[in-house]
Amino acid sequence: MQTIRALQILLLTAIIIIIPGPVQASRAFPFYSHEGMVVSAEPHASAAGFEVLRAGGNAADAAAAVGFVLAATFPSAGNLGGGGFLVYRRPDGRVFTLNYREKAPAAASRDMFLGADGKADPELSRRSLLAVGVPGSPAGMLETWERFGSGKLSREQILARALSLAEKGFAPDFGLVEGLAHEREWLSSHPSTSAVFYPGGKTLEPGDTLRQPDLARTLREIAGRGRDGFYSGWVADSLAAFMAAGGGLITRGDLAAYRVQALEPVAVDYRGYRVYGMGPPSSGGMVLGQVLKLLEPFDLAAMGHNSAAYVHHLVEAERLAYADRNHYLGDPDYVEIPLASLLSGPYLDSRRRLIPEGRAGKSLETSHGRPGPDHTTHFCVIDRWGGLAAVTTTLNGGFGMGAVVPGAGFFLNNEMDDFAAAPGEPNMFGLVQGEANSVAGGKRMLSCMTPTVVTRVGGDGSEEPAFVIGAAGGSRIITTVLQVFLNLAHFGMNVREAVEAPRFHHQHLPDVVCLEPNALSADTRRLLEGMGYALERIDHLGTASAACVLTGLESGTWYAGWADGMGVGAGTGY
Ligand code: DON
Q: Which of 376, 377, 543, 572 is catalytic?
């Protein structure tokens, strides 16, 4: 670690001298590197990706290693017991995605979250064992390495760092210490969680060592036996037994049947960029694509960053796109999604005409939920061959449904709450969704995760890597990625400024514009209120991570990256 830090400082010093023009004008520098880069929410994870790149691995190898380490060092969101998505650009320019979203167990049914009063019961869909979808992350991370990796690193090498951190332990950072202290009452009510995270009833303090021997055994099993090490054998037995004992539905059959899907990315062209995102069962690629296409004719740069006109245009585009999302999108294996039509020029032209000039549009009025403690994590990897990996993974809420699988040491997700528990009623993120995303056995719940790879398209149609972007923040992920991208594309911000600039958000329902502190000046707020917008202050809308490829510098290709949130984001590179 010390060597890496020293290297970072050295690089930073070097860059301040080397990088010309706009970067020097900034007071906030991102991380820079020259041969490869990893940006994640946690330093051990970034360091593991860095080691893999240094050992000759490519972006996919590093992404898999980072994902496994986050399961140990960032347990509120990094995971084995959750799911995620990968968007991967191979150095030859082809872009692929992997869908390792959780699935509803076979025995799940449409009304399983309704209480006696016929209303959705959030306790059931968020904190009970019924909240848990069949995990996809172990299969997804292994598939990332197998399908796209360099072939130079063994499975054991990919898992080595995660295994040693779980086994030997590490000093939890401030974010984890805080998170565990904050959630103590709820989390320690699960004996299996308490044993690992509150040993002897004690809450961890900065400087303590967190050891996770059961998690280490599970990681060793995966290192030795691959996907079978998790989806059959003693780990699967432990998970299924825990479910059976506590009223959960996941069986060994559900685990054995779990498969990762390789899907085409959703791609849209926007003002000289090609933006590659995740298709359904994520709504990220579609909503981001729609919003960008709706905005494309407008000169956003001329409006000014976070001006009233800028907020108005983004919010109205978001309102339209989220309305489509909530109505049409779900698991494409279960519902017909008119994706091509939703992204077609004529359709979007007709939708754009609905943006009112100079005043707020209106969404239907409906009650909405408040986001609870939530967590997801995104990371970006760039290798020296031009491979780009964008990965977003989650347990849904922070620490998922709160229970660690006894003996196996990993948290279980509460992803079932991403379904419309009762179509028309808001979920944890206040999203009001429809039939297309109702619960069914084997179905994947709709996601907002938006891992995104962006290229710059030349006049001859050739593509150059430009940005890797993603975020955490539930329904706010998509609008976070949107704003980071627009900050980079139109407002001359470096990647750190682009990630840290305060954001705003609208999701059709509830019909309010959420604002981060200091996102808008008092007079901009007054202008927007005058146009009919309801504004609501919210502490943070999501945390973003991004990495950029800076080309055209005399010294060669350089990468810059930044991860915000929790104060522990870390970039490494060489
Ligand atoms: O897939 C989704 O859209 C949600 N489960 C993501 C949850 C999330 O981002 C919580 N984090 N901050």
A: 376
Taking a C-beta distance cutoff of 8 angstroms, is the pair 562, 501 a contact?
no
Label residue 297 by pLDDT band (50, 70, 90): very high
d(Cα 221, Cα 165) in Å, to the nearest integer? Answer: 15
Indicate if the pLDDT at residue 151 is higher than 80: yes
282 CB near ligand 1 (under 6 Å): no
Residue having the nearest C-alpha atom to atom 8 of ligand 1: 474
Cis before 510 (ω within 30): yes
Protein residue whose Cα sits closest to atom 1 of ligand 1: 447
Q: Is the CB of 472 under 6 A from ligand 1?
A: yes
CA-proximal residue: ligand 1, atom 9 (nearest): 474
Active site residue 524: no
Place of tokens 């949107």: 482
Asked whether 448 lines ligand 1 (CB < 6 A), one says: yes
Region of 339 please: left (phi>0), alpha (psi -120 to 50) or beta.
alpha
- Indicate if the pLDDT at residue 365 is higher than 60: no
Contact 548, 37 (CB under 8 A): no
Q: Of all helices (H) and strands (E), which one includes residue 560? A: strand 556-563
User: Using CA atoms, how far apart are residues 570 and 48, in angstroms rounded to an integer?
Assistant: 12
Question: What is the whole-number distance in angstroms between the Cα of residue 102 and the centre of ligand 1?
Answer: 12
Task: Tokens for 208, please give them.
Answer: 């303590």
